[in-house]
UniProtKB/TrEMBL annotation:
<comment type="similarity">
    <text>Belongs to the purine/pyrimidine phosphoribosyltransferase family.</text>
</comment>
<dbReference type="InterPro" id="IPR005904">
    <property type="entry name" value="Hxn_phspho_trans"/>
</dbReference>
<dbReference type="GO" id="GO:0032264">
    <property type="term" value="P:IMP salvage"/>
</dbReference>
<keyword id="KW-0547">Nucleotide-binding</keyword>
<dbReference type="GO" id="GO:0005829">
    <property type="term" value="C:cytosol"/>
</dbReference>
<dbReference type="GO" id="GO:0000166">
    <property type="term" value="F:nucleotide binding"/>
</dbReference>
<dbReference type="InterPro" id="IPR050408">
    <property type="entry name" value="HGPRT"/>
</dbReference>
<dbReference type="InterPro" id="IPR000836">
    <property type="entry name" value="PRTase_dom"/>
</dbReference>
<keyword id="KW-0479">Metal-binding</keyword>
<dbReference type="GO" id="GO:0006166">
    <property type="term" value="P:purine ribonucleoside salvage"/>
</dbReference>
<keyword id="KW-0328">Glycosyltransferase</keyword>
<dbReference type="GO" id="GO:0046100">
    <property type="term" value="P:hypoxanthine metabolic process"/>
</dbReference>
<dbReference type="InterPro" id="IPR029057">
    <property type="entry name" value="PRTase-like"/>
</dbReference>
<keyword id="KW-0808">Transferase</keyword>
<dbReference type="GO" id="GO:0000287">
    <property type="term" value="F:magnesium ion binding"/>
</dbReference>
<dbReference type="GO" id="GO:0032263">
    <property type="term" value="P:GMP salvage"/>
</dbReference>
<dbReference type="GO" id="GO:0004422">
    <property type="term" value="F:hypoxanthine phosphoribosyltransferase activity"/>
</dbReference>
Length: 180
């Protein structure tokens, strides 16, 4: 692994492909143990989570379903602020064990705005699996049930994460080199 340049910025290797896969296998093993017999519904939030979702799901050995949604945020009126709606969520969550799949919880804003919509449907359990989180960046507290890595507050790239549309196809995770 070496430094990569995407658009105008340089990124250094941060988490290798093997380390990623080993950690995701550990998360899957824990989920296999915790949710056996519950036939959980995994909801992966696009775009960024597609690599994490695909790999984690392949390591599951229990009965499980998966669905993909896209969140769209737009400016509301001053009184409502940003509103996040889901495109593509067809399943009825009532009484289900639901696991949200995210590549990264950064400020927590996305999930903070979206989770109430899911809770409204009264799932039996609403769990969160996130590959990455940046504790120093978290503004909206989110309880992550299955966490891959806690990382410093630096911009990351690769394994689904993009910089202005590019870099999602890198099989490992890179960190922005500041002032490069
Ligand atoms: O905790 P937050 O500060 O809300 O950041 C996390 C969100 O940001 C990224 O999505 P993004 O909106 O960049 O869209 P993308 O997945 O299509 O890249 C990521 O996939 C999370 O959904
Ligand atoms: O560090 C990041 N990299 C790419 N996309 C992101 N979305 C939230 N945080 C990040």
């Amino acid at each position: 692994m070496s430094v990569v340049k995407v658009h105008d910025k340089e990124f250094q290797p941060y988490i290798g492909a093997t380390e990623l896969q080993l950690r995701i296998q550990e998360l899957a093993a824990q989920i296999n143990k915790d949710l056996a017999g519950e036939r959980p519904l995994f909801i992966a939030i696009l775009n960024g989570s597609f690599c994490f979702a695909a790999d984690l799901f392949k390591y599951l050995t229990i009965d499980a379903e998966i669905s993909f949604i896209k969140l769209v945020s737009y400016k509301g009126t001053k009184s409502t602020g940003n509103v996040v709606t889901a495109i593509g969520l067809d399943e009825d969550l009532y009484g289900r064990t639901v696991v949200i799949l995210e590549d990264i919880v950064d400020t927590g804003k996305t999930l903070n705005q979206f989770l109430p919509q899911l809770e409204h449907q009264q799932p039996k359990k609403l769990l969160i699996a996130a590959l990455l989180t940046k504790p120093e960046a978290l503004v909206y507290p989110i309880k992550i049930d299955y966490l891959g890595f806690s990382v410093p507050n630096k911009f990351l790239l690769g394994y689904g994460l993009d910089y202005d549309g590019l870099g999602r196809n890198l099989p490992e995770i890179y960190q922005l080199i500041e002032n490069a």
